[in-house]
Amino acid sequence: MLETSNSQGRFLELRQIHKRFGGVHALRGVNFSLHLGEAYHLLGENGCGKSTVIKIMSGALSPDDGEIVLDGRSFRALSPIQALSAGIETVYQDLSLLPNLTVAENVALSEQLVEGGGRLGRLFDKSRLNRTAASALDAVGLPKTPAFMGTVVSELPLASRQLVAIARAIATRAKLVIMDEPTTSLTRREVDNLIQVVNRLRSENVAVLFVTHKLDECYRIGGHAIIFRDGECVAQGEIAQYTKTELAGLMTGRVINSRRYRTGSPAASQLFSTDNLGQASNFRDISLSVRQGEIVGITGLADSGRNELAMAIAGIKPSTSGSMLIDGVETMIRRPSDAIENGIGYVPEDRLAEGLFLDKSIFENEIALIVKRLSNSLGIVDKQEGRRIAAKLAKEMRLNTSNLDMPVGSLSGGNQQRVLIGRWLSISPKLLVLHGPTVGVDVGSKDMIYRTIQTLAEAGMGLLIVSDDLPELLQNCDRILVMNAGRIIAEFDADKTDEDSLYKAMLASTTETVQ
Amino acid sequence: MSSSPFEGLQESQDGGVLSHIGGLIRRRPETITFMLLVMICVGVALINPAFLQASSLIDIGRASVVTGLFALGVFVILAAGGIDVSFTAIAAFTMYSMTLLVSKHLPGLPMVVIILTSVVGGAALGVINGLLVHNLKVPSLIVTIGTQYLFRGILLSFIGTVWIMSLPPQMGAFGRLPLLQFESANGATITLPMYFLVLPIAAIATWFIINRTLMGRAIFAVGGNANVAARLGYSLRTVHIFLFAYAGALAGLAGIIHVCANRQANPFDLVGTEINVIAAVVLGGARITGGTGTVSGTILGVLLVVVVNSVLVMIGIPSTWQRLVVGSFILLAAAFFVTRERMK
């Protein structure tokens, strides 16, 4: 290891880092440096190399070429233990929690592991584990009671898990905390709290590196932007000096504006409506309607009942009271197959767990709903016809691959979402319910998904978008319904309102009247 | 946030005794094993009070030793998300080779050395398993099916197939060495042998490794999610090698005790009892998918299987029913755990 000059406060520097996966050149000579006490935002489309560069910094991957200068010492590659003992803590997108261990163990076990240089033949100190865990949990706003600390992580809701992962990163004396999309499942209040944690870390001279698609949060936190495109760092600088449009342009290499996508207008005829729909304690008195060619947005906090409503319409968790009308006919929807038969499509929020067969090909995923229709009396599937349909769908959805035999798991998030939407187009539904259609999807894919949504509406399909991405709803919908504590408490014309009014309605206590 | 992390806990506090027990079972699945064991013991004692005599309890204790040692090894591997079916072959290999070595070449070898050598020999064979699992990146089930055939094949082809009916004297003596001895009502002498102590000692050692050392936490971490564990700095290689070496060492120990207890060394012995042992561990609450389980659960599972095996005869049920009963228990317990999970 060579001693190199250690300029003031520079903690980590990447020099000409290259990484290849098989034939894919994922990183093409990446250079940047991180200083203590600063905040950084690593921005770029899915598949641009952000995750790879994070894994190289945290020691999970070795670069093929280049140099990592850490605290003035030069390395070819880092091991996880080297990175951790140098104070590089990472909150991975998948959280990297151990589901069968307790909260306390997940948060604080690393401290003792790293101290011993990764040696396992040592005793561990339980009371110290609990002390470290308690102070870290406190810092992220989680309870530090023995009952919570002893809970097994797999029993926690997703938002708490995300906070536990963050607590682990700050449990020890970190010098650099890397967070890969840390706010995807957090409520606004939890995000505010996280931003406070970040500010406190910076004041303690810790560097923080964010990877996120939520540009608003980047502006709120401030600091430096590092923008990636196709495995290269294309721009760096104070984030405040870039507009959103400029950032999106740098990330995609093309100009994407944040105008309203919605141009058409709905037909007069009613397509779908609900009458006093309710489900146990999740939602009640839901009366909404969607016309042909209309795009209706539904938003609300995570516990507002919006998710349950979407799943009730799709028959996944059926409603318990009230009724649904399709083309004016009252229709019972008790299970997903009822919804499909009545022309209701549902693109779930968690496409990985609920929607896609990741190790199956694009072709097989696209035709999953029409296999019956494609098969003859002997049950043999007409693959040629299937391929023709799949190719047509892939083209309509602008998938950026022509190889339909690629497993869906190898696609980027945006492409996976397009495969999923394409599958529903194969049965030409009357109503398509899109649940968080662009969660974890990059700017370029978002653009294409929005264009598709508009094309579908123009063809006469009714669309319900359930989402907490307010700009998305404002740009795409005709009307936006806000749910709060299980009821629809406000309705807005999407072109006559703004994010603030929507937020106010979402956060309003239900006793107030909202207008 | 409606989904408070405490919901589950509060639920079990508010919901009265039943859901309290439900919560306990969810946290400590071996409670079920314990209840089954108690029910069987009470049932058998009611039908045939002879069951409660010291002699039958001691029989059960004695019969638990070999299965229990195997089960502790299987538990540790299961906790890390792996599985081992080669431990019986390791036991057969070490016990037979050791007995042959001592009776043919080293008749004077002290018992302590014999035991230690068996343990080390078993561990060495286990290391082979560990290295193969780690370096081939093949599921441990496949690797250990391979090594089971391999170890057994080497034993029978190159070392010997002849039963050794007369053990070296120090081994025979160890098998008879009493820990407790008394006369029963009908005048027969009942002995709890010294080697019984090996099981509680091994159980405590395993408990200590699992609950007090970083290795124990690493084993559970790997069982929870091996990729994540590696990312967090746990060395998969160290864990894999340790696991299989530990299970191998316990198998070597079990093998030599098996010989001393039965006063003969049969090279065809032991292999074929793997499923019985894995059944005991699974009945003790460890999930086959890894990352769960406890030492106390494992021991309870072993007792359950041993009790079922030995008491059916006492209440007049043919011993061929034994498998049927154990099988039903496994399915019952599995169905019970699954419904608990769903209700949650």
Automatic annotation (TrEMBL), chain A:
The keyword Nucleotide-binding appears for this protein: yes
SMART domains for this protein: AAA
GO MF annotation, one: ATP hydrolysis activity
SUPFAM superfamilies found in the cross-reference section: P-loop containing nucleoside triphosphate hydrolases
CDD domains xref list: ABC_Carb_Monos_I (cd03216), ABC_Carb_Monos_II (cd03215)
Origin: domain of life: Bacteria
PANTHER family: CARBOHYDRATE TRANSPORT ATP-BINDING PROTEIN MG119-RELATED, XYLOSE IMPORT ATP-BINDING PROTEIN XYLG
Family to which this protein belongs: Belongs to the ABC transporter superfamily.
Protein name: Sugar ABC transporter ATP-binding protein
UniProtKB/TrEMBL annotation, chain B:
Tagged with keyword DNA-binding: no
GO cellular component terms given for this protein: plasma membrane
UniProt membrane topology term: Multi-pass membrane protein
UniProt entry tagged with the keyword Transport: yes
Transmembrane segments: 32-51, 63-96, 108-128, 149-167, 187-210, 241-259, 271-288, 295-315, 321-339
Extent of the signal sequence: none
Gene Ontology MF term list: transmembrane transporter activity
Chief localisation class: membrane
Source superkingdom: Bacteria
Keywords: Cell inner membrane, Cell membrane, Membrane, Transmembrane, Transmembrane helix, Transport
Localization, UniProt: Cell membrane
Protein name per Swiss-Prot or TrEMBL: Sugar ABC transporter permease
